[in-house]
Design goal:
The chain is an alpha/beta fold and 357 residues long. Helices cover 36% and strands 22% of the residues. It is built from eleven helices and 15 strands. The strands form two sheets. It has a nine-stranded mixed β-sheet. It has a six-stranded parallel β-sheet with strand order 3-2-1-4-5-6, sandwiched between helices. Strand 2, helix 2 and strand 3 form a beta-alpha-beta unit. The protein is globular and about 75 Å long. The termini are far apart.
Length: 357
């Protein structure tokens, strides 16, 4: 059986991690090229032993390498065009979130994938984390409605501030990051988001005048559940409370308690963003004196993958989907849905109005 040829497009944080996953999966896949407009491809290639052809232009690389699959980890404003070009050339696609910069663009990607019968997997990394899976599972036992509180503020500086400024040329923090947590909330409730409201503020002249680097959103679900998420990027952002992952319902609560990952100075460290360390489960049941009947439980999962291992698992999922002809209809519907909700929140920030979904 011949190896799957994969073209890696975008060689920054996520692209480099996915390329390293492919590099380790060399019995199944071969990287046929690394593509970036800057020097990140040279840096990545050196880390991988200078084994791979380098390209500056994506479309040239796509034509010359004739890959079986393409891994796209570029800025979101390129996702739609790059994905469709790959699909129309007969490639499967692994695509970092969000699936596109607009809802219509996301739907076009899904439609083309369906038309050409190729796989598209979107990089929802938390879906591959055992502790996040357990977090969602326990949250589903807390009754309805749920209250979901989450954030990921980043006191970005150095290289990460360059990354965030570039991202904010085309999208806001709550669109880029919130798709993960909206997806988590939808899994926890198994309910439909019906209304959003959001606030945001521009705290620096380093980003476009029509964008903001702090945002907070609120979602109402049709089962009565509510959730909020906030995301701020920049050297001015406080790291006092940047890692809140907390859910409660009538029966109690479950929280991710990540002492090391939530420590000062860790907010823009990519490996801390997926850490869990342990889950705290609180039981609301009380006796006739209003005292708790059961003590809190602590769940420590032995399988605690780091960021690179999560990317490895994402790529194994992608390769399995190709090999086993997995039906990804629900996966893509969820990716489009979470983007639509995030974009509605962005609309709410910019209009100052509540948006009905």
């Amino acid at each position: 059986m011949s190896k799957l040829k994969i073209l890696v497009v975008g060689c920054g944080n996520m692209g480099a991690s996915h390329a390293k996953a492919y590099h380790e999966l060399n019995e199944e896949v071969v990287i046929c090229g690394l593509v970036s407009t800057g020097k990140s491809k040279e840096v990545l290639n050196a880390a991988l032993g200078n084994k791979y052809p380098l390209y500056t232009d994506y479309y040239t690389a796509l034509k010359e390498t004739q890959p079986d699959a393409v891994c796209i980890s570029t800025y979101p404003d390129t996702h739609e065009a790059y994905s469709i070009a790959a699909l129309e050339q007969g490639c499967h696609v692994f695509l970092e979130k969000p699936i596109a910069s607009t809802a219509a663009g996301a739907e076009r990607v899904v439609e083309v994938a369906k038309k050409v019968n190729k796989k598209v997997v979107v990089g929802y990394i938390l879906r591959h984390h055992p502790s996040w899976q357990k977090f969602i599972e326990v949250a589903q036992t807390m009754g309805k409605p749920l209250v979901m509180r989450m954030n990921l503020n980043q006191q970005s500086h150095g290289y990460m501030w360059d990354v965030h400024r570039n991202l904010m040329k085309t999208l806001s923090p709550i669109v880029d990051c919130a798709v993960h947590y909206i997806d988590v909330m939808c899994q926890m409730t198994a309910a439909k988001p019906v209304q959003v409201s959001a606030i945001g503020v521009r705290l620096t002249d380093d980003i476009p005048e029509d964008n903001y680097n702090y945002g907070q959103l609120q979602i109402r679900f049709d089962d009565g559940s509510v959730g909020w998420y906030e995301a701020g990027w920049g050297p001015m952002v406080s790291d006092t409370a940047f890692f809140i992952k907390d859910v409660f319902g009538p029966k109690g609560s479950v929280s991710i308690v990540a002492d090391k990952a939530s420590a000062a100075g860790e907010s823009d460290t990519i490996d801390s963003h997926t850490k869990t360390e342990k889950l705290k489960v609180h039981h609301a049941a009380i006796d006739e004196d209003n005292e708790f009947i059961k003590p809190d439980d602590w769940i420590h999962l032995k399988d605690e993958p780091d960021h690179q291992e999560l990317c490895n698992r994402e790529q194994r999922y992608f390769l399995d989907a190709i090999a086993n002809n997995t039906d990804l209809t629900a996966h893509l519907e969820d990716a489009v849905n979470s983007l639509k909700v995030a974009l509605a929140c962005d609309e709410s920030v910019k209009t100052g109005k509540v948006v009905t979904l």
